[in-house]
Amino acid sequence: MKLYRELAKWWPLLSPHTEYEEEAHLFLKIIQHYHPSVKDAVEFGSGGGSNAFYLKKHFAMTLTDLSPDMLEVSRNLNPDCPHLQGDMRTIDAGRQFDLVFIHDAISYMTDKGDLLAVMKNAKKHLKPDGLLFIMPDHYKETFETRTDHGGVDKDGRGMRYLEWSYDSDPDDQVAETEYAYVMRDSDGEVTHEYDSMKSGLFSMPEWEELLTEAGFHAHFERVKFSDDPGSYFGIAATQID
Hints:
By secondary structure, the protein is α/β, with parallel strands linked by helices. The protein has helices spanning 11-14, 21-34, 50-55, 68-77, 112-124, 204-214; strands spanning 40-44, 60-65, 83-85, 97-102, 126-134, 146-150, 153-154, 157-166, 174-184, 190-200, 216-225, 228-239. A hairpin with a 2-residue loop joins strand 7 (153-154) and strand 8. Helix 5 (112-124) crosses helix 6. The relative contact order is 0.16. The model has no long low-confidence stretch (mean pLDDT 97).
């Protein structure tokens, strides 16, 4: 996506980190329920580092992402966290952790083989009693066509976006999202861009089957956001002995 490359500098105006405080707290409650003594964590697909900004107050975090441009955004927000560039299917952080955390970046896995590769790589990065926590955007059972919008102004710059998510083919395992961005720079110049993405759309039994193959027990936990009454479920994946 352009948003993670040439438009990455606009990320803090499209999705400011202050909008992540509630969800980070909700994720933390689930994580601590399954692993009360997390001391260190690695995040696969950390993006702009917004969840890490809050989670790092509770345990040390190493942040990884495929996009060098998004890692730079995250470094500005989280200069105290190590940052590594790489693909979540294959990256090697060089050590093991109490927690592997994967937020919505997991949605870019549109193939079961790729999804399984991420899960197996996560297991390699976990200590024997470590926890994998995944927060997919949606499942086959919960997906709904939706429209979203947002953006903020800061330091003389501003950005607004319109987002439309839909499933053009209910028989495949992919959903589509279209984006329209309007950006106003500090000199008053206004530009606009179009972007799009495809995301994986798998059922809960398919997630459970893949996690079992990777060596995990899957525990689906409801996540209730105050500003969005939709059906969202995180996965706390404990390791099979």
